[in-house]
Amino acid sequence: AKGEYDHFMMKEINEQPTALAQALEGRIDPDSGRIALSDFEPGTFEDVESVQFVACGTSYHAALYGSLTLKQAGVQSAALLANEYSVSAPPIDENTLVIAVTQSGETADTLNALRHAADQGAMTVTVTNVVGSTAAREADEALFIRAGPEIGVAATKTFSSQAVMLSLLGQRIAADQFGEVPSDLDSLLPDLESMPESIESILETTSARSIAERYEGSQSYFFIGRGLGFPVALEGALKFKEITYEHAEGFASGELKHGPLALVTPDTPVFAVFTGEEDEKTLKNAEEAQTRGAPVVAICPDGHRAVDVADAHLEIPETDADLAGLLANVQLQLVSYYAADLLDRPIDKPRNLAKSVTVE
Ligand code: F6R
């Protein structure tokens, strides 16, 4: 079932345009240019005062992404690791909405957090890929990402679909809560609808393989980003370590100088994600690493100032700042894939890992 591909992971990376088109199908109203999301009754979220996302691993990175977009829409929100939730959950009441983000819908840590939230009286929603999963059955409401089955242990297309669905859901929550549609939606929707096309163009033109070759054998791989680029940096590093078995870390760009810079040498490439949010600062952080000899790979549109500064460039099409990170993530998925392939790793089934983690 891998068809023309050597691995499910590559097949699933390539399925992202289709997966996203499926996720968006019928959920944006082309006439009004508004989010329809008829998955939920009108006014479902009108009493919501704060939102908590719970998730693990890659889904946690999607949750961080979703939480940031929700904050930008003016809604109080936080993303929490599901396995820390029982000790770290902020206060919950019936005006709290808890959103469990879980591809499989079967992750024990996430289910525990969901149950804890329900016990405390929160309204619960799950954003999941699997209809009939435990999370979908137990949550008050479910939003399906419709990415199709994901076989590779490393989550790829489901991350992209989760993040996009969370940004739609966030807009819907804000609309229910404030009784009006957030004003920045007009600029976001056209770019959302062209996401599949933008990803297609990345897949056709990527130089990820040559970047992977160029930096093969490095000591560590660092990923930095700011704002919506931060969860993407975390996700880039998780994917990289998961399938290459090489050391990789993701940092908030501004944190580099607060410790990790001590690790930076000519042998530690730094992948810098530019999303259009305070890019000048991120560029300065990247240059701080470059001064210590580290090669910098900029992930940004062509013509961006970072291209002149960086040692290498992975191009993404111009898009809304809300979505640029998700395009950058596709380039990083490809870098991880090619790096793992060069090392001849069992890409679809990395050692010690399972597709769905049903123990605490
Ligand atoms: C990483 C990966 C894991 C999962 C995590 C949560 O590529 O796949 O980090 O994201 O185990 O799984 P779900 O989303 O099924 O709850």
TrEMBL record:
GO terms for biological process: carbohydrate metabolic process; fructose 6-phosphate metabolic process; protein N-linked glycosylation; UDP-N-acetylglucosamine metabolic process. GO terms for cellular component: cytoplasm. Transmembrane segments: none annotated. Its EC number is 2.6.1.16. The keyword Iron does not apply. GO terms for molecular function: carbohydrate derivative binding; glutamine-fructose-6-phosphate transaminase (isomerizing) activity. The keyword DNA damage does not apply. Residues 36-180, 211-350 form the SIS domain. It is an enzyme of class 2 (transferase). It is found in: Cytoplasm. The active site is at K355 (for fru-6p isomerization activity). Keywords: Aminotransferase, Cytoplasm, Glutamine amidotransferase, Repeat, Transferase. It catalyses: D-fructose 6-phosphate + L-glutamine = D-glucosamine 6-phosphate + L-glutamate. Its main location: cytoplasm. Catalyzes the first step in hexosamine metabolism, converting fructose-6P into glucosamine-6P using glutamine as a nitrogen source. Homodimer. This is Glutamine--fructose-6-phosphate aminotransferase [isomerizing]. The lineage of its organism: Archaea, Methanobacteriati, Methanobacteriota, Stenosarchaea group, Halobacteria. The gene is glmS.
